[in-house]
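Morning, I've got a small favour to ask if you have a moment. It would help a lot if you went through both lines with me. Thanks so much in advance, here it is.

***
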Amino acid sequence: MELKEVCWEKKVKEAVWKKGRINPDYSPDVLRWDEYGKIMMWSKFGRTDSIFGWSIKAYDSTKDGDLNNLDNLYPVNSFTPDKDKQNLESPSTGG
């Protein structure tokens, strides 16, 4: 479940971001991998138009309080490709 409607506090965003796998070629404060191996860039939070965009999802959103439980939240790349154009971003420029 993607949780776009939630306005996350910075400390929650940071805690969820740290769950992403560290990419040894980049600073963990800038780039990480999600659990599917897609690259995410910290500065691209909430962006679906960037190949480095990411959002916060919940493993299980059916129980009360799950959105307040950090164990239930994880970072995931949120890029939604636009088939009408090519996105040529690179990690060094950030798009």
Remarks:
- The chain has one helix and five strands.
